[in-house]
Specification:
Blueprint lengths: L4 E4 L9 H14 L4 E6 L9 H14 L11 E2 L4 H13 L3 E4 L3 H13 L15 H9 L5 E4 L6 E6 L3 E6 L7 E3 L7 H12 L3 E5 L5 H11 L6 E5 L2 E2 L15 H7 L3 H9 L13 H7 L10 E2 L2 H13 L3 H5 L11 H8 L6 H12 L8 H10 L1 H12 L7 H7 L4 H13 L7 H7 L2 H15 L1
Parallel strand pairs: 1-2, 2-3, 9-10, 11-12
Antiparallel strand pairs: 4-5, 5-8, 6-7
The structure holds glutamic acid.
Amino acid sequence: MKPIVTRFAPSPSGFLHLGNARTALFSLLAALPDGRFLLRIEDTDRARVSPVFTDAVLADLDWLGLGAYIDHQAIWRQSAREAIYRGQLDRLSQLGLSYPCFCSPAELAHEREQLRARGLPPRYSGRCARLPESEVKARLARGEPAAWRFRVPGGETVCFVDRVRGPQTVPADTLGDFVVARASGEPMFFFANAIDDALAGVTLVLRGEDHLPNTPRQILLLNALKLPVPEYGHLPLVLGESGVPLSKREGAASVAELREQGFLPLAIVNYLARLGAAIACEDLADLKELAGVFSVDHIGRSPAHFDRQQLLHWQRLALARMPDETLVAWLPAEVPAQARAAFVRAVRPNVLFARDFAYWAAVIYGAAPVTIGTAAGEALQAVGRPFFDIALGALADRTPPGELPGRLKAAGIGGKRLFHALRAALTGSLEGPEMRDLLVLMPPDIISRRLMDAVGVLC
Ligand code: GLU
């Protein structure tokens, strides 16, 4: 069997958003373990693309771990391949399969309007296809601007099996002779895109379903040029939580945004691998493991919905897999050197993001008072002032903080009430690391300060 060759072909007109990242991931997973995964930068639309975004997309792919599978020497940039497209456009015209179209934009708009008024689909009438050769030559010789149109073969039907959407049948006549190169000579995007897929030996194109209408055109062109036609699979959109498509223009959910929010690449990859695809694996998996359970045949046909709770689930699992030593490097400076390992062990069950370590560092080592939440406030009221007098008295007598619960219990305040009140005073909340650990980590002067602050809240 021929190895699978897939590709990801971003247009660098913005940051990599989750929909595109998923397309890249599915394309890689479809190619692993034996195939090739190519990257092509579709940067011909000079008004919209920017090298800044090309770099950002490459950086995001690297960060997600996909970059390791890309042959960086073999990245094609379409802006450097114009001569190749022009060569293929020339071949098409030499084969008599394309012709210049002199119709002005106004004429074409008028023609479309008339068709619409008659309830017909707006496709080109083929007027310039019927011009006498002598006239064509003369008009070209005069330098009259002309786009180039593909001569769509009449009566043919384009049939292909979309790997996601199943069999597709498109009568070629419904397409009308379509433009392959603008009057400027610039090839149409879908022309260059199809040529590159064929020349790179791509066997499977996975891409967003917005490109489905291009597919019959691309198949006709590749057949006409006797170039190999890949298989296609069109992925349903990824919709945001509000139900509208995630898109760069809306600035929604880019990989960069998620990175800034503290999500781990492994969490994003595991989330995306299951976004709109059924995968027989509920555990956190690396790219190779995911490839082992991924199948193009298990990509769903309905739109996928971004679900932050699911992403958080994978974040939890990805974080749980991080070794303590790695997490130590995430800690802010205020965690003292000798306490860093113990701090990570105590706090990590309460952490989802790096910034959560900073939060707990501020609670445990910070001079500023903690904010007492409603439930915490009630826990303080439940024990009242004597509780804090006993605790503060014990600390003043140099009782080690770890012995505070025992002292308080001996004074008749025990059980849940004791631990809730102590936790509320020390952290402002009723949830967090084990009290035993907190009392060891927190410097005694901070503990005293927190207890005094709690007394202030009670007054
Ligand atoms: N450059 C196109 C895009 O970013 C992709 C086209 C394709 O995958 O065929 O939407």
